[in-house]
């Protein structure tokens, strides 16, 4: 790559990240952790609330998870010992995983239910930290029959289901119709549900974009900082190239040659897509900021960004479609901890939190619901008290300026089209590797891929050989 491409700007440094336009997560709630409570003795139920540990709510919707917990509590006002309490863990996904592993392994915190990233289920199940669900509570039951099959599959390890799908996620393509219109983009070059990456590259070429600095407009942007966002983007590129890293049992099934194909595909997205030079230091907040402020025409992001954009931009300045090619599945599942003294009550709470009504609440708040029925016109309505307490998704982060200047989001026709797009994307989403060694895998992948992207003269042959060697050890547990 020549010195005028995006990576030369990175080599010199992209400068200090702009101040966050969005505050996508509320302050962490750190109460509720104490000594491990012993199981009830003498047939007596364990005392105290059912404690749910979860990451932060990124929707900015008034904490729908907390509102669902309060709805459960209202339904059990006459039973003190069936009350529930939400504990939100601070930090990113990697930090939350470490906190939960440490707490459950040491018994230093009494959690009855844990909200786990879908990639952690095999690790927590293999370590005996969460309990398999009793027979008759899986996707085949009447209660679970409308979970998206591939979403429910994230709860399963070694043919046993260990959790219930809570909220899901999938990569989407956001774009700026106003910027395309300014450039007199022809109608046949605008994004459609069948768009390919080659069509995105063609659109970027037509726009004449070739940014070197972060303050210049780029073709697209995404999350290439060295964290889980980089893993997601890499796995999506690998999937588009036909690269599958593991089989369904979590055994490594790729090769150096296959990895090179995947890495070349990722570099194409960076180079031919004229990625925003700041993408190598961008997470979800930074990439969304660049998109809002016009430094990228296209954006790869998660569903909650749709609601956030409604509070930040006029409706005619943003639109969304399916991501070209493969899109990776994200989300969280609710599991009951192996040593919970409240297992029966905890399972009842999990069933409530993943009910049809609760899933609709999650969708209304900006999360992607895990049940296909939530997207139907005849869907169960959100619990009335929860619906009344929620702000429209994305309403919390505001633009600078007067309150009355904040946009009100898309009209109902556009929202309905978005929900159809989201449902279709979830139906065909791909998973990241299913393995108890996911933590080691994602760290290894991020390290090698980030070094490759930061290199002015990247050598995908060399990078693929080194990555193949390390992944063979990682997936073997060495």
Which labels suit this protein?
478 residues; 17 helices
Explain the layout of strands and helices.
Blueprint: H1 6-11, E1 50-54, H2 64-75, E2 84-88, H3 93-106, E3 113-117, H4 121-126, H5 149-152, E4 156-157, E5 160-161, E6 164-170, E7 172-175, H6 177-182, H7 197-207, E8 218-221, H8 228-240, H9 256-271, H10 284-292, E9 296-301, H11 304-310, E10 319-322, E11 329-336, H12 343-353, H13 356-365, E12 368-369, H14 384-389, H15 412-427, H16 438-454, H17 460-475
Parallel strand pairs: 1-2, 1-3, 8-9
Antiparallel strand pairs: 3-11, 4-5, 6-11, 6-12, 7-9, 7-10
Helix pairs in contact: 8-9, 8-16, 9-17, 16-17
Give a description of the structure.
The structure is a single chain. The protein is α/β, with parallel strands linked by helices and 478 residues long. Among the domains are: 50-168 and 330-419, 3-Layer(aba) Sandwich (D-Maltodextrin-Binding Protein, domain 2); 225-274 and 437-478, no CATH class. It has 17 helices and twelve strands. The chain has helices spanning 6-11, 64-75, 93-106, 121-126, 149-152, 177-182, 197-207, 228-240, 256-271, 284-292, 304-310, 343-353, 356-365, 384-389, 412-427, 438-454, 460-475; strands spanning 50-54, 84-88, 113-117, 156-157, 160-161, 164-170, 172-175, 218-221, 296-301, 319-322, 329-336, 368-369. It has a six-stranded mixed β-sheet with strand order 2-1-3-11-6-12. A four-stranded mixed β-sheet has the order 8-9-7-10, sandwiched between helices. Strands 4-5 form a two-stranded antiparallel sheet. A hairpin with a 2-residue loop joins strand 4 and strand 5. Helix 8 crosses helix 9 and helix 16 packs antiparallel against helix 17. The longest helix has 17 residues, at 438-454. The chain is globular and about 65 Å long. Residues 1-44 and 393-404 have low confidence and may be disordered.
